[in-house]
Design a protein that fits this description.
Elements (H helix, E strand, L loop, with lengths): L8 H7 L6 H13 L2 H15 L2 E13 L25 H13 L4 E6 L8 H10 L4 H14 L3 E5 L5 H7 L5 E3 L24 H13 L4 E7 L5 H18 L2 E8 L16 H14 L5 E2 L19 E5 L16 H10 L3 E4 L13 H7 L11 H4 L1
Parallel strand pairs: 1-2, 1-8, 1-9, 2-3, 3-4, 4-5, 5-6, 6-7
Helix pairs in contact: 2-9, 2-10, 3-10, 8-9, 9-10
The structure holds iron/sulfur cluster.
Iron/sulfur cluster binds next to loops.
């Protein structure tokens, strides 16, 4: 029996390493709604037990390769229409130049983001691909990843629902990849809901990609968007769906919990931001459901309170860029890395820089990429302090 006896039997069971059912987790949410203290306490104990007093981040450059998108999610401001000032169509030269700049600033990760198969919907995307000598966004991603890798960066691609063959090809240059599950609820794809016009957000499609990445043993980052009209139970179901894939394939390296913030140029512009207490409860639930998982919140989306999440279960800040904006949340700039480090220290945590792939997943990465990482590896599969500082 654990030394710390909490009032709730479920928490004591969790701390003793015993399994509790999904129904008991629903119950935990209900109990914690009014008073989350015991939930937070349990999450923090599990965080410290599994990750110690270390919190990580990835120093990155955000390559907004193409932000035309076949789909429409009603909360998304990343997606552009032809002619809009935010439209991004990076040329090979743009990729070269940003790679060089990122290397100069000692970034480690090249985050490649695109909309969902833009060439299926826009002639502009097809022309742009043609001008660069490619027939699909995927083909271009392979090339762009090679450019970044040759410049000394490590690509991490987040390009929507890739096929198994596409992921197999991309793993040659990408130590890890990403795909947000968002939420496992099919209800959110119904008429009037955020994913109604986004077939790629169909939960079965997303789970298919995550599952195939598992079959390929690709370290995968996924996550949940919190506050888009889901119920708390649908969030718990989503965490369980991720847990299930990880139990079967062992390749989910990180779960991002992203709090919804309305964007003024979207259909959800009047929808409220995710309530911070609710968001913290979700973070803590993720920690107690998956005690060993790497759990991330983006610090720019909680600019005044991000360090308080160190008390509810997180152990990572995700990618932070000293040179490029967060094109998915352009109204929230990233805090300075130095400032984050100060705040971590104040909370009793040491900040360390990781590669896009987490240390414990290096055994899944192509050996050629592991070799390339050697020169800036600190010996524990994190980035050497003297490199990133
Ligand atoms: S969130 Fe992704 S899939 Fe949805 S509209 Fe934006 S770019 Fe497209």
């Amino acid at each position: 029996m654990s030394e710390l006896i909490l009032n709730c039997e479920s928490f004591n069971k969790i701390l003793d390493g015993r399994k509790i059912s999904i129904k008991e987790y629903y119950q935990v949410f209900k109990i914690s709604k009014e008073n989350p203290d015991e939930l937070f306490k349990t999450a923090k104990i599990l965080q410290n037990k599994n990750h110690g007093k270390v919190v990580t981040f990835s120093k990155k450059a955000f390559f907004n390769l193409v932000n035309l998108c076949r789909d429409t999610c009603t909360y998304c401001t990343y997606k552009a229409e032809p002619g809009e000032s935010k439209l991004s169509l990076m040329s090979k030269e743009d990729v070269q130049n940003l790679s060089k700049l990122a290397k100069k600033y000692r970034c480690v990760e090249a985050l490649f983001v695109t909309g969902e198969r833009p060439e299926e919907r826009y002639s502009l995307a097809r022309e742009w691909l043609d001008q660069n000598g490619f027939s699909s966004t995927f083909e271009y991603l392979v090339h762009a990843s090679e450019i970044a890798l040759n410049a000394g960066l490590f690509p991490h691609t987040n390009a929507g629902n890739l096929t198994k063959d596409e992921m197999r090809e991309l793993r040659k240059t990408n130590p890890s990849m990403g795909l947000m599950l968002e939420n496992v609820s099919e209800r959110l794809t119904e008429k009037g809901m955020p994913h109604h016009l986004a077939p790629s957000k169909n939960p079965n499609e997303r789970l298919r990609v995550l599952e195939e990445s598992g079959q390929l043993k690709i370290p995968m980052t996924t996550g949940i968007l919190v506050g888009i009209g889901e119920t708390p139970f649908e969030v718990i179901d989503s965490i369980f769906a991720i847990k299930d894939i990880h139990e079967r394939y062992g390749n989910i390296q990180e779960v991002i919990l992203q709090n919804f913030n309305p964007k003024s140029d979207t259909l959800m512009k009047d929808y409220p931001s995710a309530d911070e207490n609710y968001f913290k409860t979700v973070v803590a639930l993720a920690r107690i459901i998956m005690p060993q998982m790497n759990i991330q919140i983006p610090p720019n989306l909680s600019p005044t309170s991000y360090s308080s999440f160190l008390s509810v279960g997180i152990n990572d800040w995700g990618g932070i860029s000293p040179i490029t904006p967060d094109y998915v949340n352009p109204e929230f700039s990233w805090p300075e890395i130095k400032k984050i480090e100060e705040n971590c220290l104040k909370a009793g945590y040491e900040l360390k820089c990781r590669f896009p792939v987490y240390p414990e997943f290096f055994n899944m990465v192509e050996s050629t990429l592991v070799e390339k990482m050697l020169s800036i590896n600190d010996g524990e599969n994190l980035v050497r302090n003297d490199y990133w500082r």
